[in-house]
Amino acid sequence: MNSFIAIILTSLFFILSGWYLTYLLPLEERLERVGLAFLLGSGLTTWLWFLGCRLGLPLNIPTLLVSAIILVFTGYVLKERFGFVRNKTTLAKLSKTEKYLAITVVTLLILAFLIGSYNPLTVWDSLALYDFRGHAIAMNHSLKDIVDLPYYVSYPLMISLVHSIVYMIAGVSAQGIHAIIFSAFIGILYGRMQHWTNKTYALITCLLVITQSEIFTHATFAYTNLPYLVYLVSGLLYGVLGGKNKSNSQYFLIYSGLFIGLSTWIRSSEIFWILGVMLISWQGVRTKRLFTAVCSIAIIFLIRYSWSSFVISVLLAIDQPDMPRISRFTVEAFSMIIVNALSIAKYAYWNIFLPYIGMWLLTIPMLGVVIVKRNVRVLMLVCAIAMTACMTIVGIMIFSTYFRTWNQIGDSARRMILFVSPLTLIASTYSLYLMGKRGNNEV
Fold first, then answer.
1. Residue 308, Cα to own-chain centre: how many angstroms?
2. In angstroms, rounded to a whole number, what is the distance separating the alpha carbons of residues 1 and 404?
3. Are 152 and 146 in contact (CB under 8 A)?
4. What is the C-alpha to C-alpha distance for residues 262 and 162, in angstroms, rounded to an integer?
5. What is the pLDDT of residues 18-42, one digit of tens each?
6. Which of 84, 193, 307, 310 would you label with 205, given CA atoms 20 to 30 Å apart?
7. Which range, 114-123, 159-168, 371-380, 395-404, is most confident?
């Protein structure tokens, strides 16, 4: 079976696995429902598969099907018990201009899929870590080959498990599925923006995100930065959605927690999941849904802990000391930060500020929209962008006290905050839409 068929079958499997869970939200767009089903199916199925492995089950097709059945059964029970969906989702009718935009979006996504499917894996970490683990799991149906070295547990297993599924059904390369992950995100982005604005603005936002060169490039090879972006930004989008009086809007907070938690199932060393915790807490207080917010935050910690506890057990088994923690707030550490202040400033300028200078500057006029339109949603998005910058700078300061080569990995720092681009484009496009409307638009 060639890679194309294997990737399509894997994608359909994920969509079916997560389909019933999409009925817990009152969605308007069928494209969003499909994208949501794929991302929930891929994230939660692989996570349950991993939990089964920790209980002693093999990582093979039968146990994968059991994980999918558990997910389908849970979604079906919740759907039947709560019956949130009242209206069927439809494919919106498009104007002539919107059709051209849609054709361009689809063409670019197909192009990314073709490039990823037919290009060999060449990028180092994708070849030596993510894809290697996928091959090892597919051959041995266990984690025995990846628990001998700390390098192999330096990142969570979701992407490797997705790759392993493709290889278990005789696929040759799993790289193309990263374009499918990106396409699922575009489906969610279109649905959210169409709900907040209209079809034209939604399609323009999708096109702007896709045509960001670094994002499009990441959709064509097997790194984890793009999947991390997809889950983190999706979680933030669902987190800013719920209003005070919207039917079933409290459940968007739960899905926000699911996506933020699953982002740590892709990359666990980044601390941007804290953005999700802060946003969910804000919405919980604002909408007086504290219990829902607490449950959502608990989901984040549960998913995150399931991997971190596994890593600790592996490091202890091979007698490898764990990585130093942020708790090293000593006088020596602060002295090192002061000494390195100029180097930290230069590093941040060249690798954090300059590559995204357009995005950072776009946040300035958004503050005017917040003041004029009194729009809480824009305020939340701007705060998320600003907090990203602050957390990144603080992270660099702390990192500089641990490793002498901290200033030699600029590319890694730039990729780490890749999600700033779509987040800023979403916020700016939404702000532009609000400025074209009369009156205040408080959400």
1. 18
2. 47
3. yes
4. 14
5. 999 998 888 878 899 999 999 999 9
6. 84
7. 159-168
What is the rounded CA–CA span in Å between residue 343 and residue 335? 14
Sequence-distant (6+) residues with CB within 8 A of 2 are 171, 172
Q: Give the pLDDT of residue 410.
A: 64
Helix orientation angle between 341-348 and 376-399, rounded to the nearest 10 degrees = 130
Asked if residues 85 and 23 have their Cβ atoms less than 8 Å apart, the reply is yes
pLDDT in tens, 424-433: 999 999 999 9
Q: What are phi and psi of 90, to 5 degrees?
A: -135, 165
pLDDT digits (tens, 9 = 90+) for 204-213: 999 999 999 9
Model pLDDT, residue 149: 84
Whose tokens are 């690798």? That residue is: 351
Tokens of 293: 């917010």
Whole-angstrom distance, CA of residue 332 vs CA of residue 335? 5
Give the tokens for residue 425.
Answer: 């484009």
CA dihedral 77, 80, 86, 92 (to 10 degrees): 50
d(C-alpha 194, C-alpha 237), whole Å? 13
The 3-class SS string of 142-191 reads CCHHHCCCHHHHCCCCHHHHHHHHHHHCCCCCCCCHHHHHHHHHHHHHHH
Which residue, 394, 385, 391, is CA-closest to 424? 385
CA dist 331 → 323, 324, 328, 338, 397 (Å): 20, 16, 9, 11, 14
Structure tokens at 436: 């074209």
First to last CA, the chain: 50
Distances (CA, A) of 116 to 113, 121, 156, 221, 222: 5, 9, 22, 6, 8
The gap from C-alpha 238 to its chain's centroid, in whole angstroms, comes to 12
Give the chain's length: 443
* pLDDT, mean of residues 397-407: 72
DSSP string, 275-318: HHHHHHHHHHHHTT-HHHHHHHHHHHHHHHHHHHHHHHHHHHHT
Best-predicted range by mean pLDDT among 100-114, 304-318, 350-364? 100-114
Sequence-separated (6 or more) residues with CB below 8 Å from residue 364: none
Token duo for residue 242:
């719920």
For the stretch 248-303, pLDDT in tens is: 567 899 999 999 999 999 999 889 999 999 999 999 998 888 999 999 999 999 99
The CA distances from residue 165 to 138, 143, 147, 174, 252, in Å, are 7, 14, 20, 9, 29
For residue 29, which phi and psi values (nearest 5 degrees)? -110, 130
